[in-house]
Model the fold of this input.
Amino acid sequence: MFIRSLSLRDFRSWEHVELELSPGRTVFLGSNGNGKTNLLEAVGYLATLGSHRVSADAPLIRLGTERARVGATVVNTGRELRIDIELNQAGANRAQINRSPVRRTREILGILQMVLFAPEDLALVRGDPGERRRFMDELCTARLTRLAAVRSDYDRVLRQRSALLKSAGRQARSKADLSTLDVWDGHLAIHASVLLAQRLRLVHDLAPYLAQSYASIAPDSRPASIAYRSAVVPPEFLDPDREPQPEDTEALEAIMVRQLAAARAKELERGVCLVGPHRDELELTLGDSPAKGFASHGESWSFALALRLGSFELLRATGAEPVLLLDDVFAELDHRRRTALAAVAAGAEQVLITAAVPKDVPAELAAAPLRVETTGGPDGRISRITDSALITELPEDSAVGTEPDS
Done:
């Protein structure tokens, strides 16, 4: 899999640009703040419908504009597909596949697969559990695109059930209130069971790739491992040697229903949903100690890198090889970690690299760089690539049209 062309309009610092890309290595070179990362962020958005830097879409739209547009032509085993998405300040985002509108933006998921390693990845080890849950869910969705709908439905039911718990907890609990909660319990259990089953399968499948990647990066360190931790899932499901089964989803749904019933009184008292995958954790371990709080700075970087490299190897082993994005990371790594990352990147079908100076890019990944600079504009700095032969302007009327996402 590789990206043949990438186009941006009013995305972050880019007013308009269209890049023709090819398999192999592409290096974007420029000072910090010039907009290199914005190019990789746009690729990541097309693959995940989210940014690795911010949780909302509004910062992605260039200051002073109402919408941003990102598009790419993706080649997978000789087949080309064009995907485009329009991000709007007001109203729903819109998407197209091969210039035809799609009903929901999430329908473009799966066309482009990528693995991105960035300085923000240190939060996978040192950050809160939400960072690791997001890591799992994005990787699960890359493997099974229909999980995007499950995640959306789970979040919607969770919000509605939580609102009902708050209102029911503030007033006398009528039979109607409790009956309504029973209905929402059933909906939550259905979506949660699918999400839990996919997370458990992911952790089982990713674990050997993670351990191997970490050992290659830090051979003198303690062995690295991952495990799923949940107050809902019984211990037998969490056994790292247990092969996940197709019938797990049905069993997990029944378990969720029982756990929700058992927690009902406490949830009404506190007004929050205490049971479900939104409270679970991906446990990272070095030797016998949790990585968070016990790993050194170098070990934390190694673990974060191993999670991404393990993800890359897992996706490559089970489907089309993803595009590898390396965002200004080589300057953060010592010689051994640089060498390990460069060895994987050198064998990738397509790798997009950003760096501040040429010496940050290992020799085995060296390529003629595309230099990124910024110029002043009425609405702030505007990024541009100085080699004009590599870019073309987008037409002014290249709008993306579709029905709103729902």
